[in-house]
């Protein structure tokens, strides 16, 4: 295994970080540029896809691309659709955002390549999430940085439902044995009721009261859902704001550390 012994970080770029969440299908160019610069400067890849396994996988959320169309068609992580036009509307929007992210990363010298979950993943109430990793692992082993996105995926008995970027992050981190997970959000971490960043969370009960729902259209459940998913993960996770991406990629303790282990 070419990737044995090579640390893996899975980084999620929140949809509301890289898009203008209040304006349909609008990229936040300045925010995306600064995220891309931080990734390019971090030395996670030197632009040479044959230089050895990549240490990073990127996943991004939907923001004003996926979530607007998902809401239009009444689709969420639990409510599905059998309308093929709804599938292409939601998936097509996510592919448009994904190609902007991949193109900007490539332009900055990062060997980013797109991976689309609709083509591979599926959900089943009994069997849970099937998330094949051969493409992601194979691309990574060849030095590419796979860039995935929240998407719609087949859901047994429901048509398609939304698979959030967060679920992709935790699913890939578990299956590929990531050593570190980062969620870049619009806030500097998980906040307590005074608005201060909570430094570390090791169980949900201690922070449940402080975690409300996301304010804008977000079919995947906001901060509380993120914290729950990350607590269940076997790797330490950080939630942090856009300014902390460089620090996170440099192994600093940024934002809120979530470690349920
Ligand atoms: O923004 C959901 O991804 P998220 C993407 O990570 C869609 O929750 C298709 C709405």
What is the percent of helical residues?
A: 25-40%
Q: Tell me what portion of residues adopts beta-strand conformation.
A: 15-25%
Based on DSSP secondary structure assignment, what is the total number of beta strands?
12
Element order, helices and strands?
EHHEHHEEEHEEEHEEHEHE
Tell me the name of the CATH class: Alpha Beta
Counting H and I runs of at least 4 residues, what is the number of helices? 8
Biggest pleated sheet: 8 strands, mixed
Structural class: alpha/beta
Question: At the third CATH level, what is the topology name?
Answer: Carbamate kinase
Tally of discrete structural domains: 1
- Tell me the CATH superfamily: Acetylglutamate kinase-like
Describe this structure in words.
This protein is an alpha/beta fold and 261 residues long. It has one domain (9-218, 227-249): 3-Layer(aba) Sandwich (Carbamate kinase), CATH 3.40.1160. Helix content is 33%, strand content 18%. The protein is built from 8 helices and 12 strands. The strands form 2 sheets. The chain has an 8-stranded mixed sheet, with helices on both faces. Strands 5-4-7-8 form a 4-stranded mixed sheet. Strand 4 and strand 5 form a beta hairpin. The protein is globular and about 45 Å long. The two termini are 27 Å apart. The relative contact order is 0.18. The structure holds Isopentenyl phosphate. Isopentenyl phosphate is lined by residues 15, 61-62, 66-67, 70, 90, 94, 150-152, 162, 164-166, 219-220.
């Amino acid at each position: 295994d070419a990737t044995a012994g090579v640390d893996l970080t899975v980084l999620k770029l929140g949809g509301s970080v890289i898009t203008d969440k209040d304006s349909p299908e609008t990229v936040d160019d300045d925010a995306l540029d600064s995220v891309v610069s931080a990734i390019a400067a971090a030395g996670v890849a030197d632009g040479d896809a044959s230089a050895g396994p990549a240490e990073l996988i990127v996943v991004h959320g939907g923001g004003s691309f996926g979530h607007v169309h998902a809401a239009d068609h009444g689709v969420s992580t639990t409510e599905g659709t059998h309308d093929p036009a709804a599938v292409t509307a939601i998936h097509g929007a996510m592919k448009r955002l994904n190609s902007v992210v991949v193109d900007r990363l490539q332009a900055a010298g990062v060997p980013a390549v797109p991976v689309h979950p609709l083509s591979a993943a599926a959900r089943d109430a009994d069997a849970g999430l099937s998330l094949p990793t051969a493409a992601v692992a194979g691309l990574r082993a060849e030095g590419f940085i796979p860039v995935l996105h929240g998407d719609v995926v087949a859901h047994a008995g429901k048509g398609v439902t939304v698979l959030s970027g967060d679920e992709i992050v935790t699913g890939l981190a578990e299956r590929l044995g990531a050593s570190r997970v980062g969620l870049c959000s619009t806030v500097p971490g998980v906040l307590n009721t005074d608005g201060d960043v909570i430094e570390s969370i090791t169980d949900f009960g201690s922070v449940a009261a402080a975690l409300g729902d996301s304010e804008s259209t977000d079919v995947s459940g906001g901060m509380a859902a993120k914290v729950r998913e990350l607590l269940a993960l076997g790797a330490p996770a950080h939630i942090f704001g856009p300014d902390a991406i460089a620090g996170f990629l440099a192994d600093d303790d940024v934002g809120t550390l979530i470690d349920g282990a």
